[in-house]
Amino acid sequence: MNPRQAFFECLHRSPPALFEAALWIAAEHDPAVVPQTILADFNLLQQQVSLGMPLLPADELGQPLLRMMNELGFAQDDFTPLRPAAARVDKVLQRQRGQPLALGLIALELARRLEIPMVGVNFPGHFLLRVIGADHLLDPCGGRRLYPNDCRELLQRQYGPNLKLQANHLHSAEPRLILQRLSRNLRQLHLTHDNHLAALIDAERVVELGNANAADYLARASLYKHLDCPNAERFDLEHALLLSEDPVQRLRLTERLGHLPPGAVVH
Predict the structure, then answer these.
(1) 60 in helix, strand or coil?
(2) Cα angle at 6 between 175 and 89, to 5 degrees?
(3) Alpha carbon distance, N-terminus to C-terminus of the chain
(4) Of 22, 94, 204, 216, which is most buried with the most CB atoms under 10 A?
C-alpha cells in the first residue's frame, strides 16, 4: 500500500484516523517518514500533557490542553515566508512550530487520546477548535477563547471589513474537509518555494478528496502548464470552466483553452 492509498484507508475507518492520515500526507513528500513510528513516539507527548492537566470534567479540558501544549513549546510559526515544514505535522512535532492547522491536528489527536470531545473548525484564514457543547472557539496557538466578536475581529484582520462573519464559518469540519485544507496549504507552500512537483502531489490530493472548486482545478492546471502537460492542463481548465460562476473568469478560461493545442484523440 503506497502513502496515498494508506491516506484514504485512514479516512475510510470509523471514525476516520485524522492524525494518521496527516502523517501519510507527510510520507508522500518524504519516504523517511514512518507514520507508525511517529504514532508510537506520540505516546511520550501524550504523557507529558496528561501529567499537567487539571482534574476537571472532560468537556472543560480543551483550553488547559492547548495551554499545556504551549507550555511545552508549541507555538505558531512566524517565519516569513512560511516553509512547507510549517504545515507538515511530522515536522511540527519536531520543531514545535507550525501553522494553526498543524498545531490543531496535534491537539485533536491528544484530545482523542485523552477523551476530550474536541473538533476542528475551518474558520477562514485561521484554523480553530471547539469542545463540543461550548459557547466559544479555541485558538490552537495558545488556547485563547474566541467568542463571536473575537471571531469578527479575527476575520477582519485576515480579510478586511468586507468579509462578514457567517454561521458556516463556525461549523465543525469533517475530517475530509480538514485534510483538504491541509493539502491546499501544502500546495501553496510548495508552490511558494518553487517545488512544482511537490505542489502537484498536493493539488492531486485536493481533487481526489472530492468537491474540488474552480480554484482547485485552476491551481492544478497552472502546475501542469509549468510542467508542460497540455492535455492535463486542458482537462483541468475545462473543469474549472464548468464550475466557475464568474463571467470574467469564464471568458479568460475560454481564451486560455483556445491557445492550447487540441486534445489527444484516443482510438
Answers:
(1) helix
(2) 55
(3) 32
(4) 22
Q: What are phi and psi of 210, to 5 degrees?
A: 95, 155
Q: Are residues 29 and 108 in the same domain?
A: yes
- Provide the grid cell at 245: 460562476
Backbone angles phi, psi at 56, to 5 degrees: -135, 160
Instruction: Express each pLDDT in 8-65 by its tens digit.
Output: 999 999 999 999 999 999 999 999 999 999 999 999 999 999 999 999 999 999 999 9
Q: Do 89 and 197 fall within a single domain?
A: no
Domain annotation covers residue 183:
no
Q: pTM above the 0.90 mark?
A: yes
Number of domains within the chain: 2
Long-range contacts of 253-260 (CB under 8 A, 24+ apart): 260/230, 260/233, 260/234
Q: Are 204 and 138 found together in one domain?
A: no
> Which amino acid belongs to residue 266?
V
* Domain that residue 206 falls in: 190-258
Same-domain check for residues 9 and 94? yes
98-148: per-residue pLDDT in tens? Answer: 999 999 999 999 999 999 999 999 999 999 999 999 999 999 999 999 999
